[in-house]
Amino acid sequence: MKHAALLALPLTDAEIEQLDDFLMSDLVSEEAMDVSMMDGFMTALASGPNLFMPTMMLRWIWDTEHGIDQPAFASAEDAERIMGLIIRHWNGVNATLRETPHAYEPLVLERNWKDGRMLSIIDEWCMGYYKGIALDQATWSPLIAQHPEWFTAILLYGTEAGWEELKRRKDSLDQHQAFADSLAGSVRHIDRYWMQQRQQQAERGDGPTVIGRPQPLRGTPKIGRNDPCPCGSGKKYKRCHGAAEAVSDFPQSGGRSDWPHPEHLSSEMEEGPVHSPLSQRLTQTRNGTAVEIEIYDDGEGGWLLEIVDEFGNSTVWDDPFPTDSAALAEALNTIDSEGIASVIGAAPTNVIRH
Questions:
Q1: Mean pLDDT score of the chain, rounded to an integer?
Q2: Among residues 177, 60, 48, which one has the least CA distance to residue 122?
Q3: How far apart are CA 142 and CA 145, in angstroms?
Q4: CB 309 within 8 Å of CB 344
């Protein structure tokens, strides 16, 4: 009973640092997760559609690329200690999502920015979450298509395609932080959806799929510890963005001061309006017509709505909405009731106002 009680205890800040030190050490594969990526990975598994065997989870933590390489523990005692920390964190993520989902926060890194503000570094966490999705992407894909707004930040910061988009966008720091702040809410939405699906499966007598066989992961960035760091510093990844020496303070239950990928961010704080994570591309299945739903703050606590068609025409709502979700609801209701053609113009310079 004492051992079971110990495995239920959340990790302390010191224990999180110990675990991260091990994951960043030469005792594990260059493809091993760091503690933030591991947290994202565990969260995807805990909030997803399937049940995963612990051995399957561990092999991907040790080797994100192939799920094969194993760590070289210094001793049996060291192996027991590290395994205990990982299982306790896994139990903690599950317990939070099941018992107090409103209190869930991702374990992300932070860095002191130029003006003294703390900036969340979410690349590794999002990469970990996306790897959890990639283990059974066919099951996840319909939900991603149905609610793309829940996955906006995860796909932007957790995939190669998203990184390219971030380079193109050059978002402001405020926009970056808005994406970071959206992660906890997205996880709660996703977890609630799959929990309802599992309940319906149980009522029908169907059990969720149990996954225990390693599968190749595709579509996620591969960064070896000896590869150049994506931040552009010229240093090896393990000595820069993934450096264990950079450990200081973890947010939430511990954290590390770390560098963001600077190509993701603008150096100017006021580069432009902050876009809501609910902004999305909407495509009509029947004929492939697509529009961009843009939702951004007005600087006064409200949210502005604009729909842009493929020709660059804008449909702009004059009055701000109290929340970004209210703006999205208005956009979807307009397209549903009036048709997508109502927000598509003929001339590139047309501006249609509601």
A1: 75
A2: 177
A3: 5
A4: yes
